[in-house]
Amino acid sequence: MIFRFVIALQAVFVTLCYGLVARNNNNLQEQFLVKNLPGLYSNIPKDDLPLMFSGQLELYSENKTYYYFWKYADQNKIDIAKNKTIFWLNGGPGCSSMDGALMEAGPFRINDKGEVTYNHGSWHKAADVVFVDQPSGTGFSYSDKYDADLNGVVHEFLRFLDKYFEVFPEDFHNDIYIAGESYAGQYIPYVSKGILDRNRQTDDETKKFNLKGLLIGNGWIAPNEQSLSYLPFAYQAGVVNEKSSKWSSLLDQQEKCQSIVNEINAGTLDKGVNVHNIVNKECEKILNMIMSSSLDRSKDTNEQCINIYDYTLRDSFPSCGMNWPPDLTNVNPFLNDDKVLDLLNVKEHRKWRECSSGVSSHLKNKLEPAVKLLPAILEEIPILLFNGNRDIICNYMGTEDFIKNLEWNGGIGWQTDDDADTTEDLKADKYKGSKLASDWVYDDETVGYIKQSRNLTFVNVFDASHMVPFDKPFVSRSLIDLMLKEYDEDVRDDGKRVFITYPLGTRPKSIPEDEKPSETESDAAVSSATVSDSTSSESTSSTEASDISSTTSRITRLIQLSVICILIWGIYVLYGSYKSRPSSIIKTGPSSGKKKNVQWADQLRSFQEGDTVPEEGESGVPIDHKAGFLAKAYNKLTGSNGEGSGQYVPAPSDDIELAVVDADLSNFEIHSDEEAEESQSPRGPVGSV
Ligand SMILES: *[C@@H]1O[C@H](CO)[C@@H](O)[C@H](O)[C@H]1NC(C)=O
Ligand SMILES: *[C@@H]1O[C@H](CO)[C@@H](O)[C@H](O)[C@H]1NC(C)=O
Ligand SMILES: *[C@@H]1O[C@H](CO)[C@@H](O)[C@H](O)[C@H]1NC(C)=O
């Protein structure tokens, strides 16, 4: 009872006190404030409750373009987390960054009761993190028009940044990082080039974005080299071998792909290679063959095919990874719950789905692949590329291979003797760690290896899938330390270099000698006014053990503040009675008569949404998963829409409506439990890839 009361008070405190600040400082922010979520005040540790803003920012009224974002800021920032903003983008094209927010780097996971639970490895403790659904048509971002190419994506993202900083002007001078995954390996370099170009073109210092670095996870950056890496990777991982039924056709296919890539490199093939197509269907077929050669009908239904995002996992055929990660089972209903959407200030929307095939089918990219942009970017800012070592589709070998060929900051590749490998040799030894690789030790464990030179860092993260923060939240957060150079270096007896990072805030020399918890108390009033100013948890280690003295001081502070806030609340209630909208903070009722009048390009063709969320079966032609598992796998996380491959026919409507396809839905649920267990159990020896 008392607990509930305290929780309620806390809700009052967070919202009203913040509300005052917001009203004084920036009225715009208030409409984006997230005041509650199912499970927020009961499941999330008090000290870790993020200050959140979420909603749809208008970019253009002309074509009704709105971008959805969800920002998380720690209210008890440690020093290193101050004045930093990370924008996170998922890939696809067309996959919502709510993947990143609710299954990867964000503070929440969704449980089977539809409540948020805490991710103790959340990145928001290391920097403010803003998850952005982009380009329009992705997640809760929408427009009359889809983007036709990456130039359009850049144009809109720059606009988004301008609008974002209008709402959060205090973030403008922050160090800005852009992070993301998979097809964001195309988005991020393009967007960054757009930012750096714009910075160069303006003399007005107040218009320059303070871009400081990029973090790209399992990025689809260099289609040529990455396509050629499928077979060597699968071979080395033991997914295929000389005895595999498809071995000789695989070798043939590899040769075909290689000769096309050779032509591209020699300039004898059309230079405007469409990165969507993963170079071409010949290269795409390699992956297709690898997946189908893993089919084993003698296994359990849920285990018949290898998981394309983590070769240590299996999935049903022909899903081969599409049912993964298991968290999707809870995230889907959460993001389609009107109560939740109301709390997230999502006003106009279609049914949320993880990935929109409409976005990918419209993004007819004829521009050069993003790898070509890296050298110019590296002249100005550092880039960190990381790969979960179990991913097949954007595997680490492909990343290493394209780096070998990359010329940047005065050299080609890492510039060491042992980089003389050629990719045509499939022998496993060729791909074992090079001397240049330094071990990465986090929290006293070797968690990966690192190569670093001339502003480029490559990190191979052990025991991680395509979605590194999903498997390794703490380790993934420490990638930020690598970017910020918050690591120690050591040289072992055998001459091997080691990078050492530490659980959040525990790096020996970065801990202030004198912790001053008492100061926090006397600062309470000030802290309340600025909300994010408290430093009390600065010295707390990343472990979730709560500090009793800090708790006590917090309770004292809470009581003081509660009194103030109850007074304010009274005023607020009076004030609220003048307004027609509800003033209750813990508002859980469904919004009545919420208008959902969304205009979509494909609506003009076949989809009539009207004023309501689509009913089952109303949503047009769902993608036939069984017709092309690779189609969706590509679409979901690397960006191929399989166009021209004959595997995937873009549906007239852009929906992948998992929820309305009965067969798929049942597959989904049957598999999820088993996979949940599976993905939590440790798999294979560390660094076996
Ligand atoms: C860092 O952020 C705080 C709070 O937003 C602000 O008061 C301060 O001026 C910032 N410092 C710098 C160097 O931008
Ligand atoms: C929407 O309109 C704005 C303003 O005219 C324009 O800059 C933008 O490119 C348009 N978006 C698309 C996808 O055409
Ligand atoms: C690397 O990045 C820094 C900014 O972090 C920049 O000043 C420098 O010129 C870049 N180039 C090289 C070769 O280090």
TrEMBL record:
Keywords: Apoptosis, Carboxypeptidase, Glycoprotein, Golgi apparatus, Hydrolase, Membrane, Protease, Signal, Transmembrane, Transmembrane helix. It comes from the Eukaryota. The chain crosses the membrane at residues 558-578. Pfam families: Peptidase_S10. GO terms for biological process: apoptotic process; proteolysis. Its EC number is 3.4.16.-. The keyword Protease applies. One of its GO terms (molecular function) is serine-type carboxypeptidase activity. SUPFAM superfamilies: alpha/beta-Hydrolases (SSF53474). Residues 1-19 form the signal peptide. It is found in: Golgi apparatus, trans-Golgi network membrane. The keyword Transferase does not apply. This is Carboxypeptidase.
